[in-house]
Amino acid sequence: MMEDIASVIGALREVEVALFSWLGSTAPSLESSAEVAWASGASLRAGWRATQLEPLVPVSVGVPGSGGDTASSGTALGTAVASLGQSRPQSGPGAVAGLALEWYDALLRAYEFRLGRLSAAADGPIERVFQRLVADLRAEQAAARTLRQRPGRDA
User: Fold this and answer.
1) Helix (H, G, I), strand (E, B), or coil: what is residue 37?
2) Is residue 154 part of a domain?
3) Domain membership flag for residue 155
4) Directed axis angle between helix 2-26 and helix 33-53, to 10°?
5) Please, what is the angle between helix 33-53 and helix 124-149, to 10°?
6) In the structure, what pLDDT confidence band is assigned to residue 61 with cuts at 50, 70 and 90?
7) Residue 104: which of 135, 75, 69 has the closest Cα?
8) Number of compact structural domains in the chain
């Protein structure tokens, strides 16, 4: 059980770190100031979500995905997010927000799936963090959807 949750949390954290990197590096090349501001803020919020997950990853030598193991269980996920800009075009207003929405949807499903399977007695700290992350991702979705509806609007 500990290996499973360490693997899941480690993989989710890696996706959040990859989103942080991708959105932050993409922001300066976006077309409108509204998109630049959104991507920069979304990058920081992905970094915040990753920091929320970090203390939940058990640190134990030999447990996959833990701080004591050199192999990360989420490497494939992190690589997939990091290669977003290479695998799909990012041109056109709202394209980056649209791609981010796909990742937000996947992350929300993953967090909600795990929330539904936590032990009330043993997983209180994980539940609190996941609830915060779900709320943050819902807010991110709303901001990205608004941006996609009015991508060229400058503040």
Assistant:
1) helix
2) no
3) no
4) 160
5) 170
6) low
7) 135
8) 1
28, HSE (Cβ side, Cα atoms, 13 Å):
3
Task: Give yes or no for residue 134 having a pLDDT over 80.
Answer: yes
| pLDDT tens digits, one per residue of 88-125 | 545 666 889 999 999 999 999 999 999 998 887 778 88
Tell me how far apart the alpha carbons of residues 65 and 8 are, in angstroms, rounded to a whole number: 8
In a domain, 57, yes or no: yes
Examine residue 42 and state whether it is found in any structural domain, yes or no: yes
Contact indicator for 6, 57 with CB cutoff of 8 Å: yes
pLDDT tens readout for residues 20-48: 999 999 999 998 899 999 999 999 999 99
The single-letter DSSP state of residue 67 is T
Q: Which domain holds residue 61?
A: 2-149
Domain of residue 138, CATH code: 1.20.1260.10
For the chain, state the CA radius of gyration.
16
Instruction: Write out the two tokens for 50.
Output: 């990753």
CA distance 127 to 120: 8
